[in-house]
Amino acid sequence: xxxxxxxxxxxxxxxxxxxxxxxxxxxxxxxxxxxxxxxxxxxxxxxxxxxxxxxxxxxxxxxxxxxxxxxxxxxxxxxxxxxxxxxxxxxxxxxxxxxxxxxxxxxxxxxxxxxxxxxxxxxxxxxxxxxxxxxxxxxxxxxxxxxxxxxxxxxxxxxxxxxxxxxxxxxxxxxxxxxxxxxxxxxxxxxxxxxxxxxxxxxxxxxxxxxxxxxxxxxxxxxxxxxxxxxxxxxxxxxxxxxxxxxxxxxxxxxxxxxxxxxxxxxxxxxxxxxxxxxxxxxxxxxxxxxxxxxxxxxxxxxxxxxxxxxxxxxxxxxxxxxxxxx
Length: 327
Known about the structure:
Blueprint: E1 13-15, H1 24-33, E2 38-45, H2 46-51, E3 66-71, H3 75-87, E4 92-97, H4 102-106, H5 117-130, E5 135-140, H6 149-160, E6 166-170, H7 181-184, H8 192-201, E7 206-210, H9 216-222, E8 228-231, H10 233-237, H11 245-250, H12 259-275, H13 281-287, H14 297-307, H15 316-322
Parallel strand pairs: 1-2, 1-8, 2-3, 3-4, 4-5, 5-6, 6-7, 7-8
């Protein structure tokens, strides 16, 4: 059992794991705006952790509370990775049972695992045996033509019996063939009432909802029925919404941060990144939506897009871009 101390996690709001998006630069940025949000890594495969040449578990200490989302279906490998992650200080391990891409299916993980609840349960059990941090599952409401409520509850029953007491439910089913991952986030209809019913029938479980959530008001509405909300694309494309979470959803005193302040708070981090040999656009691609809907935002976006990728680009590109925004 890992010796990692268990840190209390507020699970009311979380930023969804998004491949190529929720890297450590985005997570640092999001943490500046919310102390309470639970942040998730991109999905990391067990193969990358165990056999890859890079450090796929690197993060900034400021990111806590931080969950690692794992992709895999080999219980032994998942247990090894969970143990490594716990020793590295992660606050939660999440198993991906929701991604529908062909690449993921070929590796026998992601949404296709909904058809194998016993295997998912085995994987959860193996991880729980070696860590003392929470092990959770993110899944869909169904796959292909297996989209009945009974199919969903059978999955939940089998997995919860091995000790999983928190599920994040993307309120769409996934089509395992015929739709791209992007289309699978948009075309299958949302079915929020099915997730609400799940909470009614499993009151002992912590159930969070994901999918199509765009406003604080929508989040508050979902929280009338459920324990938590997970937001993905809106928290990325319109990131300043994350600054409202602590006060509006978690009952904390408002910090009254401005978008300008958040941009300025990023500058020391960006300077350090550049000193370590990083490129400016590694970070600016995540903050380009900071001023969405604000006069001058087009100039901000254009200046960053046209200049941040240049090899010599430095912190001045940010300050120049800020000059386009009405103060």
